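Input/output pair, single chain:
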Amino acid sequence: MGSRDEDIAWFRELLAPIGQITVRRMFGGAGVYADGLIVGLEVGGALYLKTDDQTRQAFADAGGQPFVYDGKGQPVTMSYWTPPEEAMDSPEAMQPWARLALAASLRAAAAKPARAKAAGRGKSKKRDGTPGKGP
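Output:
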């Protein structure tokens, strides 16, 4: 097991109290999910937890740093922040920060508009929106 795999295994253990933790590799890092909701990112061996307008200041006040990447020559700051260093010591120490991340993820999921059910699913429409021949 490489050091990155060991880091991810530790992050899973740290976050386990908030739900079933899964990890999906993506873009050179990994998305960290609790019960199917993204709660964090692993990038370069560091854990970043999801924040929003209600939680970001708590992470900043605790000395956390945002995840920033280079987007076509411009720095892009994401809504993921490192938890305080002491939170990395145990699942108990991480739990309040993990719960903040989960709450931010739940709010983000609730804010997304529900997918509209396609009327006449399976039927094609002409470009002008009138019904066309179905398959």
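The chain has one domain: 3-107. Residues 116-127 have pLDDT under 50 and may be disordered.
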